[in-house]
Structures are given as C-alpha cells and as structure tokens.
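Notes continue from the previous slide.

Worked example: a multi-chain complex. Inputs as given:
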Amino acid sequence: VPLYFFHIHDGSYRSDNVGTTLATDHEARTEALIAAGEILRDLGRAGWHGIDWSMNVVDEGGTRICELKFSAHCSGE
Amino acid sequence: MIGDNNPLIRALARRDSLSSDERALIEKWRSRIREVPEDTELVAEGSHPTESCLILEGFAARCQYLDKGKRQLTAIHIAGDFVDLHSLLLKVMDHSVITLSRCRVALVPHGVLRATVSESPHLGRLLWLSTVIDGAIQRAWITCMGRRSAHAHLAHLICELYLRLETVGLAKEYTFEFPATQTEIADMVGLSAVHANRMVQELRARHLITWRGTTITIRQYAKLAELAQFDPTYLNLVNEPR
C-alpha cells in the first residue's frame, strides 16, 4: 500500500516523518482536503490569528501529489 | 478472594462490594470460552443474539458502517466489559462489535443472565450500572468529537483507556498495551488518519506520551489530563453501595 507524507507550513515547517498509508493518489488528495479542514478547525479553536498556511502532499518517491493553501488576515493588513 | 483474576469481578469490585455468593455467580459465567482472532466480527449488526459476550482478554470495538468503507468506532471494550449486554433487552443489534486484537471471550446465555438478575437483584443493578457507564463513556466521546480540539480528544482517549485498564489490572506504571492501527485510531476519534497521526506525533513531541508499537506509556499524566480537561467522574471509579 502506498505511503504519503503530508508536510505543513504554518509559519514554521512541520515535516511529516511518519506518513499515512492510502490506496491511491486520488485518495491522498481527498484525505488532504479533509485533514486541512480539521487542522483549520483546531486553529480556530485556539483563537483568531492571521495565518499563511499550506500543506504539501508527496508520495514515497518525493513526487508532489497536491498543494493546499489557506490564508487569514485582518482587513487592511 | 474468589474471582480476583476475573476482570469483570475486578471492574465491579472497584465500584461496589461483592459478596462471595455474588462472586461465585459471576465466576460461573466463564464456563463457555471462545478464542477469537483479531479483526473478526464478534456480534453482527442486525443479528438477534441469544447470549452476551464478556471479554476476558483482548480489545474490541463497537462499529457502525457508512458507505465507501467508511466507519465510526463508537466504543472501545477491554477485558471485563460485556460488549453486548444490552442485546438482552434490545434484541436486535443496531451496530456490530469487532475485535481489535486476538480476544478470549466468555459467552453467557441470556437465560443465565435473567436467572442471575432474579436471584440477585444487587448483581442485576451492577449489570445495569455497567450499561449506564457505557452510556456515560458515550457522552464523553460525543463531547470530545464535537467540541474538543484533536490533540485534546486524543489525550482524553489515552487518559480514559489508562484508567479503565488500570481498574482491571492491565496498566502498570502508566504503561499499557493498546493494539490499534493508525486507521482504527482515526476511526475512534472521527478524524482523518493524517490529522490523527499528527496528533500522536504532537503528544510525543511534547513528551506527554511514548507510543512504541502497541505499547503506550503516559510520561506526564497530570499534564496530559490537563490538556484533555479530563475529569474521570464519568467512569464511576468509586466504591459505594449501588
């Protein structure tokens, strides 16, 4: 079963050294979107702060499968 | 005393005093033993069980299936838990019970349970207590799932498992076995495997736990419980007349 790594930038780089097994690239992209939603929900629970957030999904060979980006800034920033 | 190596007796004796007659009655439930491999359905959704299944060794989970292979594990059961005591009254199962590890279980015919409840109303109340505690655990899980952040939720689950396993003598020095896979843990906390894995790494990185293979050690219980806002009242670990 293929292993995928979900690396995150949220001001600092959080490398995924463990990975998650998923059946296909398509499943890895879907999982990335769901995980991103969960991570943003937790960020919101910690209180408002401006963020530039991104997730890079790569397979075991290092090929990029997808990139997700999110930013939140006060008006006027 | 009789049954000190019986996990159900240990779990009940933590919450109330049991007479030797009551202990002897519970001991009789261990007459039909079955060994079940891991990842096996113990009780099927839609079935109409005529006996209830008491776990003597191993781990099981209640499970509800959705489409496309998705599922939610709604409860974890450990040694000393009746996984389907409610089937005595509900008749038809609205969920399945699966093994997470190899299990040793005792099958107790519903007729025997009915006779026990007639003979000993006190044991009847204690069986009722065990389903009431199952309900209390479900409430705690719903709150975790709906309102806690993922790392607090995972910390809560680890605190709960530790106290429940310690009650039946299966945790020592904050260390216990928990043979669940990445996917099973994600299905327990209702999160993607990716986020659930990240939270395990985070609890490790904060030096709150170590998790090697199937062995979990809580390194700083007070800090883990604080992070989880864990209040063990719902587990009813108090010995009083019931």
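Summary box: Strands of chain A lie at 3-9, 13-14, 20-21, 51-59, 64-72. The first helix of chain A runs from residue 25 to 45.
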